[in-house]
Design brief:
Blueprint lengths: L10 E4 L5 H12 L3 E6 L4 H13 L3 E6 L5 H15 L4 E4 L14 H28 L3 E6 L12 H21 L4 E8 L5 H9 L23 H12 L10 E4 L16
Parallel strand pairs: 1-2, 1-4, 2-3, 4-5, 5-6, 6-7
Helix pairs in contact: 1-7, 3-4, 4-5
């Protein structure tokens, strides 16, 4: 049964929902009664169809729309397709991300532009394309999925960290500019999340296959890092009808404070 979050029947597009955090968000919103759009890159079509099929099998409503949002025109086309197929759009979750794990020396113009295209430009273009449809429905809800890296980031996450800092400014700017239209824009900044992609990346970096069970307490006081379903829980709360007057908020979903912290770093993590 859907929880009482006021999401029943709402049309929700979640970018990058063919895996990881986006998948968890799509599943949770469907549980809350939203009509969800599973999105990913064309190469992820099989995964997206599987997720949508599983949502439908449990009584939810889900469709699949694939698009490479690194291409500006694809952003407009993605929103247009959602509106054509479902009759409108109420919720946009900008979750898709390009995460190049390199530092200064390897961050050339092409890599930087590719990262910004997905992480910063696409959210802007998607919101711009969705705004007229939000207005037709009396307002809309946007949630940008940022990162605690937006404040500084790690040495090998330079471009990614810059993009998430820009996303926070975009969130606050648009919330300020369009609150009077009923368009609310918020952002959550997850900390370290155990997605399949993160697990595999750390193994490629040289950590042992059991690394999630060996994270030092200075990085995971709870004895583990966040799960995608926990991020989905906070996402649903921010999109809920009960949060209808909250806009322009950028909040960390993390085990430790980001301001004033004196971390005791251990090598390898």
């Amino acid at each position: 049964m859907p929880a009482e979050l006021g999401l029943t029947g709402k049309i929700a597009l979640i970018t990058g929902s063919a895996s990881g955090i986006g998948e968890a968000i799509a599943r949770r919103l469907a549980e809350e009664g939203a009509r969800v759009v599973i999105h990913g890159r064309p190469v992820q079509s099989a995964e997206a169809e599987r997720i949508a099929g599983e949502i439908r099998a449990t009584g939810g409503e889900a469709i699949v729309v694939m698009a490479d949002i690194a291409e500006p025109r694809a952003c407009d086309e993605l929103i247009a397709t959602v509106v054509e197929r479902l009759g409108g759009i109420d919720i946009l979750v900008n979750n898709a991300a390009n995460i190049p794990r390199v530092g200064l020396e390897a961050t050339d113009a092409a890599l930087f532009d590719a990262c910004m295209a997905v992480n910063l430009r696409a959210p802007l273009l998607l919101i711009r394309a969705a705004a007229p449809h939000f207005r037709q429905r009396g307002g809309g809800r946007v949630l940008n999925i940022g990162s605690v890296n937006c404040y500084c980031g790690e040495a090998n996450l330079l471009a990614y960290s810059i993009s998430k800092g820009g996303l926070a400014t975009l969130t606050r700017n648009l919330a300020d500019a369009h609150a009077h239209e009923g368009i609310r824009v918020n952002q959550i900044n997850p900390g370290w999340v155990l997605t399949q992609h993160e697990y595999e990346s750390k193994v490629r970096d040289g950590l042992s296959p059991d690394w999630p069970q060996r994270i030092p307490p200075e990085h995971a006081p709870a004895g583990r890092i966040l799960r995608p379903d926990e991020i989905a829980h906070f996402t649903a709360a921010f999109l809920a009808e009960q949060a209808a007057i909250v806009s322009g908020t950028v909040v960390e979903i993390n085990q430790l404070p980001m301001i004033g912290r004196n971390p005791r770093k251990s090598s390898g993590f």
